[in-house]
Amino acid sequence: xxxxxxxxxxxxxxxxxxxxxxxxxxxxxxxxxxxxxxxxxxxxxxxxxxxxxxxxxxxxxxxxxxxxxxxxxxxxxxxxxxxxxxxxxxxxxxxxxxxxxxxxxxxxxxxxxxxxxxxxxxxxxxxxxxxxxxxxxxxxxxxxxxxxxxxxxxxxxxxxxxxxxxxxxxxxxxxxxxxxxxxxxxxxxxxxxxxxxxxxxxxxxxxxxxxxxxxxxxxxxxxxxxxxxxxxxxxxxxxxxxxxxxxxxxxxxxxxxxxxxxxxxxxxxxxxxxxxxxxxxxxxxxxxxxxxxxxxxxxxxxxxxxxxxxxxxxxxxxxxxxxxxxxxxxxxxxxxxxxxxxxxxxxxxxxxxxxxxxxxxxxxxxxxxxxxx
Length: 373
Fold this sequence. Notes:
Residues 55-61 and 123-131 have low confidence and may be disordered. The N and C termini lie far apart (96 Å). The strands form two sheets. Strands 1-2-3 form a three-stranded antiparallel sheet, with helices on one face. Strands 4-5-6 form a three-stranded antiparallel sheet, with no helix packed on it. It is built from 15 helices and six strands. The longest helix is centred in the middle third of the chain and has 20 residues, at 141-160. The protein has helices at residues 34-49, 56-59, 65-75, 82-99, 109-120, 125-130, 141-160, 189-200, 207-217, 221-225, 256-274, 296-305, 315-326, 331-338, 354-368, and strands spanning 2-9, 12-21, 24-31, 232-233, 238-241, 250-253. It is mostly helical. The protein is 48% helix and 10% strand. It has three domains: 1-61, Double Stranded RNA Binding Domain (2-Layer Sandwich); 63-180, Tyrosine recombinase, N-terminal domain (DNA polymerase, domain 1); 189-360, hpI Integrase, Chain A (Orthogonal Bundle), CATH 1.10.443.10.
């Protein structure tokens, strides 16, 4: 079906023709004259009906990429952690918008490569500017890699489901193997003291304990906020993180200053929860007790008050890992504390433990090569 829209812009009147057919990408073109737009639209409709465009006539009633995305959302996505679902939905929404109308057999590595390239260059700016929208921000190589890999996963599933033949169009799409180095932003001593002071002075009485927890254990924000009373055992000095990214329960030690802070927080919490109609199981409850507290605004205010720039809450996790490395923890120990399944994720901190490694080797060297007296 063809639709022609009249547009009035700074350069005068123009006519944008669009042809939509199920299983085939939308065809669109802008003309100065209405008759040219109508002629072009009729020609495209005829070519599609005659099967002159690749696979249109035979694949129009078969699965599109949008069908794959819908099935993936129903069968695969629910088995992933909530945080992973949120991130992956960003990629799925993008591909559904960009390629969802394409029949699977119409997808080629040229089409996909073009769309991946548009991600690198912030997409096709021309149509956005015609609509008067703000231009997109170019995406980093690492982000582009995530988008590309997500599409590959979708098409691999389509093959497993028998929706796609042996020829996967991703086979011709270049891999992005050298993405930007993993970000490692951690607080220096002055920044840490300034941040802790700002959090302690925050109008939000729970923020300080949450931040100390993150700095002490490297736990993610969601892992901390979802903690319930049953998950905390101060006698055994351990907390059980159940809402983890990889959906595997993990234990973190509650020792030293963190234990003292949590004891103070639990004392404060007794009076806070007593005023709630049904109480709360959360260690860091919202005012109604039904959900954990939202610290986003309080965190941003405290961070800004401390004068710290280019720093996210997740960077508290990097800070904890960096402090562990600088104090002699091995990569295996850091991985265990942070809950990483492989050592690859903690290699980014290896340079921070070089001094400790040097000291260990020096002690060993002086001992085994010590001259006999």
